[in-house]
């Protein structure tokens, strides 16, 4: 038998009856011997056919399906292995290739090696064939073949399902881009008209009307951010979000990221504290995208903090002095262990945050931030303890060549 051939006699009862066998041998007496051996096996029924030439075997296998081939090594006009190769030629699926047991009077290691290379499932010297050895070999070969066919069938099904999912994903991505374009254009016009009314261009506006118009303008901006997030996520999934890497000022990044949140902090009596590292002045990055990341973290810190948010922003060097670490800490309720493991997942939202100045969001901000940081060769993480606030940090290489390794992440 071939090496690593396991005894699967315990699985015989799962094989269908009768097993269809094709004997390929030019010795009629030996064919009759095999038939008698198979007839003596009491726990198995066989539907046996036989041919004496390789050409007839090829024809039979083209017109019929067999569970196993009993194949002589020496045949007229070709070897048994050549015959097996012709039978299997053009068949790419395992379930279309009948398993074969090579039988030969020459029980040499060379012949066994040839059988292995030709992908014969088993090898039996003719002088060792008896009721037990033949029955065991047939059972092992057929069972293993059917298991392999089932694995292949499931793989092909999964491959087809994956292809369908990829197609749907492309369709959804295209839909996001199309609807964003179709909605943002009239949205921009609506915001401009509201702004004109708010500024009194079409007539005097009283205080209550002005307040309502401010709410409408904030809602327009919120909708616009949501569509920007959808488009960004689509581009990230399709690997089509370009980065403009250039030398930029850390101070400018922090200033622009905090500017949009200062007014809200003042309204609720909150503060933002910035502790900078004087030795870090410039980094190589896409400035607008890093501002997008930092603004998201600051916005979340305000959203999930107490009534008087105290936000602590810090920049520092990594231990190897090759990366900058930017951290945003808040004084909120923290993130539970259940939420922590999904916090950077797409569409995931921790807790039940109410709508505020930044809107409830779509659950895309942190996942987009994670992808943007990763595109820069960095990493992002969170530290939190329920009841004690959270710290969101991300690390970026100071220069574009100083990429954080996968192992470090």
Summarize the structure.
The longest helix has 68 residues, at 131-198. This protein has helices at 28-40, 54-63, 80-88, 109-117, 131-198, 207-237, 250-267, 287-303, 337-340, 365-375; strands spanning 19-24, 46-51, 68-72, 74-75, 78-79, 100-104, 122-125, 246-249, 271-275, 282-285, 310-317, 323-329, 379-384, 390-397.
SSE order: EHEHEEEHEHEHHEHEEHEEHHEE
What overall form do the CA principal axes indicate?
elongated
The whole-angstrom Rg is 36 Å
Per DSSP E runs of 2 or more residues, the count of β-strands stands at: 14
In terms of per-residue confidence, which ranges show pLDDT below 50 for 5 or more consecutive residues?
A: 1-14, 352-359, 403-409
- Would you tell me the overall average pLDDT? 81
How does this model look, in words?
The chain is an alpha/beta fold and about 400 residues long. It is about 45% helix and about 20% strand. The protein is built from ten helices and 14 strands. The strands form four sheets. It has a five-stranded parallel sheet with strand order 2-1-3-6-7, sandwiched between helices. Strand 11 and strand 12 form a beta hairpin. It is elongated, with a radius of gyration of 36 Å. The chain starts with 18 loop residues before the first strand and ends in a 12-residue tail after the last strand. The N terminus and C terminus are likely disordered.
């Amino acid at each position: 038998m071939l090496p690593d051939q396991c005894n699967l006699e315990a699985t015989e009862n799962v094989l269908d009856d009768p097993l269809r066998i094709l004997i390929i041998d030019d010795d009629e007496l030996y064919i009759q011997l095999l038939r008698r051996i198979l007839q003596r096996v009491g726990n198995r029924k066989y539907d046996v056919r036989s041919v004496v030439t390789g050409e007839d075997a090829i024809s039979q296998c083209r017109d019929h399906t067999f569970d196993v081939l009993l194949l002589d090594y020496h045949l007229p006009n070709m070897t048994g292995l050549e015959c097996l190769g012709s039978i299997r030629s053009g068949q790419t699926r395992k379930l279309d290739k009948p398993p074969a047991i090579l039988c030969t009077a020459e029980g040499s290691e060379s012949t066994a090696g040839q059988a292995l290379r030709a992908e014969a499932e088993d090898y039996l010297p003719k002088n060792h064939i008896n009721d037990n050895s033949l029955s065991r070999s047939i059972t092992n070969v057929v069972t293993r073949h059917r298991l392999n066919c089932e694995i292949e069938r499931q793989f092909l099904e999964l491959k087809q399902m994956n292809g369908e999912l990829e197609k749907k994903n492309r369709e959804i991505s295209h839909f996001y881009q199309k609807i964003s374009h179709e909605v943002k254009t009239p949205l921009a016009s609506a915001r401009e008209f509201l702004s004109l009314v708010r500024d009194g261009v079409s007539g005097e506006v009283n205080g209550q009307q002005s307040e309502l118009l401010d709410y409408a303008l904030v809602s327009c901006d919120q909708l616009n951010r949501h569509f920007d997030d959808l488009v960004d996520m689509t581009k990230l999934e399709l690997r089509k979000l370009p980065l403009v890497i250039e030398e930029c000022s850390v101070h400018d990044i922090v200033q622009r990221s905090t500017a949009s949140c200062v007014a809200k902090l003042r309204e609720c009596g909150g503060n933002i504290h910035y502790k900078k590292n004087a030795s870090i002045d410039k980094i190589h990055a896409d400035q607008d995208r890093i501002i997008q990341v930092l603004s998201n973290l600051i916005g979340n810190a305000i959203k999930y903090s107490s009534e008087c948010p105290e936000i602590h922003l810090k920049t520092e060097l990594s231990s190897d002095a090759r990366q900058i670490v930017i951290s945003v800490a808040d004084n909120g309720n923290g993130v539970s262990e259940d939420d922590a493991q999904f916090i950077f997942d797409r569409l995931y939202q921790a807790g039940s945050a109410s709508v505020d100045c930044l809107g409830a969001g779509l659950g895309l901000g942190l996942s987009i931030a994670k992808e943007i940081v990763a595109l820069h060769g960095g990493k992002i993480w969170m530290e939190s303890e329920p009841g004690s606030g959270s710290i969101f940090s991300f690390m970026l290489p100071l220069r574009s060549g100083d990429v954080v390794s996968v192992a470090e992440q």
